[in-house]
Amino acid sequence: MDEGARRYDIDWLRVIAMLGIFLLHTMHLFDEGTDWHLRNADTSTLVLVLRGLIDIWAVPTFFVISGVGAWFALKRRSGRRFLAERIQRLLVPLYSVGLFAIVVPQIYFDAFTNGYRGSFGGAIARSLGSVGFDPSWPGLATFFPGHLWFLQFLFLVSVVVIPALLLLRSERGKRAIARISGWCSHRGGIFLFIVPITGVRVALMGVIRGQFTWATFVFFAVLFIIGYMLAADERFTASIRRNRWIALAAGIVSFAAQGFLILTQGYQMFHEPFSGIFVVYEVIVSIGVWGFIVFLMGVAANHLDRPSKILSYANEAVLPFYLFHQTVILGIGWFVIRWNMGVWPKLIIVTVTSFAATLLLYDVLVRHSNVMRFFFGMRPRRTLDPVR
């Protein structure tokens, strides 16, 4: 494989994963049985099922393709420059427009949903008063990041795994990757990556419980390293293409099995780490996560590895779209959930109007201004190039 060749299929996957996360958050207003920053009075079990079907692959896919991007980035950059670029791309937007502008309205929406009826300023003051230290949270300092937890996790993963990434670029590392890609060239071999995913989930998910903990962090780090390896040898991509339909079947069966276990066993399985039912559940989850990722990567490699004007626009817009989208959804949802109509019409209205409004904010406020592009983690317009 020509390491300098741009992977347009990976660019498309980035856009697809972003659209998946966008749909996750519009559905969160209306799904049954989960807490979120803002809730519609009526909820839908079907929306919950559809959201779960997206949830299993959307964020994990982002970490895999970020690992793929890191392989190409480190071909042209030192580890120090790579981390400097991660700071500019991830931490600058997080600790500037992210926390001090975009996330601020979410604090009030979240407080209101949890019974707060005071002023907007009072909600912000309460949130600031809750900042503290939590050893279970990567980064240790706890604060309300809204959906921007992803930027913090992705940066920290990049920092922690950089020694492993550089080792894998060495001759010894490339030999190890070649050996693994040889194993994956056999029928069904690409599913060997389920082993490390399962190992991490079984070892940590029951011990360190919570939504965004060190267990989740290690899980994402493993996906990042796997993505990094996938970019190193074209035999991985060939195997992904061959096995994409088997992977889809495995993902669907896994998703159904997860639902069955939750309905029949309840959530007590998560409080019994290393029990038989817990291990079975985490194995099933791991198969589902990797199955859907392999399917999406296989379809993208087969059909989407080509440039287009739409892709060029969408790929550049991904990060600012991510930064804006959840606050836009909550702002529009704040009004729509009060309307007297069914769940599905509301969901369609929120989805369509939020998508249009988010793109409009990007295009008007960010895309054409180099100052705003800097604060949203983008390159200046005059230096845009095809380098990942």
Provide an overview of this structure.
With 388 residues, the protein is mainly α. Helix content is 71%, strand content 1%. The chain is built from 16 helices and two strands. The protein has helices spanning 8-27, 45-55, 58-76, 79-102, 104-113, 120-129, 149-169, 171-184, 194-204, 214-230, 234-242, 244-265, 276-303, 309-336, 343-366, 370-375, and strands spanning 132-133, 141-142. It has a two-stranded antiparallel ribbon with strand order 1-2. Strand 1 (132-133) and strand 2 form a beta hairpin. Helix 1 runs parallel beside helix 14 (309-336) and helix 9 runs antiparallel to helix 13. It is globular and about 60 Å long. The protein starts with 7 loop residues before the first helix and ends in a 13-residue tail after the last helix. 40% of the residues are buried.
Order of helices and strands: HHHHHHEEHHHHHHHHHH
Structural class: mainly alpha
Query: In whole angstroms, how far apart are the ends?
Result: 16 Å
- Shape annotation: globular
**What kind of sheet is the major sheet?**
2 strands, antiparallel
Number of strands: 2
Low-pLDDT segments: 384-388
Indicate the proportion of strand residues.
under 5%
Indicate the radius of gyration in whole angstroms. 21 Å
The main sheet orders its strands as 1-2
Question: How confident overall, as mean pLDDT?
Answer: 91
In DSSP terms, counting alpha (H) and pi (I) runs of 4 or more, how many helices?
Answer: 16
* Helical amount: over 70%
